[in-house]
Task: structure prediction
Amino acid sequence: MTQTISAPQLTADDHKKAMQEYGRAAEARAYALGNRGPIRFTADGKLDPAIADSYWQHGFYVLQGVVGPEELAELRAAVDRVLDRAPVAPDAKVDRHGRPVPDEGILKPAYKWAKPLSDPVGGTDKNNGRHPAQMLQPTLDKAGPAWTVELLDGNLHLMDECLRLYGHPGLLAVAAAILGDDFVPYNEVTFVKEAGLGPSVAWHQDGTTHWTAPDWDMGAHGFNFMTQLYPSTAGNGVWVVPGTHRLGKADIKKLVAEAGSDRIPGAVPMLCDAGDTIVTNRQLLHGSFANTSPDRRITLNEGFFPRKRVLGITARRLHGLMETYDLDRINERTRILQLAIDARRQRFPQETPHIYKPLAGHEDENRWSETTRQALLKNYNQRDMFI
Result:
């Protein structure tokens, strides 16, 4: 059973003021957690235990300065380029310049749309019903677009720049430290929260398959890397309830009902600067509000799982398809990791590439080229895995 918040009509300006008040105290709590800093390793190459300990305590950690200025500019330009070629509306055949939308043989639609400031999934059965309570939906204060792009699906075949980020040696070392050397991919998307337009993402926990498993633990459903191309603020960012990844399934409807609104007490925004990457446990209770702020947010999301939580699992994808993840499926999907590592090596030869142990010795089979773009990368997200 889902839940819809009953409230009088709320203007975008009223919502912005309420979020500013809600955010002030929460920002202080967020910084007080102390879970932020650059990626650090010990003398023997292990992830600094203080980072891992803080991640497991709070459910997220802000890795500062992951993306440097040059790469950040490239990533911003790449996202803008893809958005510039978006159809003018969900079913349109031309972009905003009147150009035909290119058909590049991509099977899964790259653009996901929503009404500005809306909540398209909260209080519905969409996404396997994991968003049971609807967020407040303010109205635009002035005439605006009928639709806004809220998501890009398939970052790695849409943007070479994102493929290179996927091979970032520091981030992959963090993934190996938290999930094990044989970690496996989830999916890669871009969350688009345009200033004054971005829709909300209702409170939820991402995992779907392992909540009742006898060996459930606080890392059972993996994590997401969330690289921010612009500063993440209380007004435009993702909010979390720290520590909830350790407590099992949250009663979201009860929390929202007790709060009397979608602003749950104890939640904090995940604050960071442009170029930072937030590692976020997928079991952490999280959501984002309608972006009535004046600040744009673009988040590049890369998800990963512990291999033991995927191998042999039958799961329902968000669109309802049931799939079983055998070793062949996992091996085929992980080849994209090795492809990304090589793409990054070619662009940033001064870096020491990450060695992805399951494919060690198979580097030559997964070199980045125009041939592997077509043979391996194109439509790679048809092999995404969901748990």
Remarks:
- Residues 115 and 348 are 39 Å apart (CA to CA).
- The radius of gyration is 20 Å.
- The chain has ten helices and 14 strands.
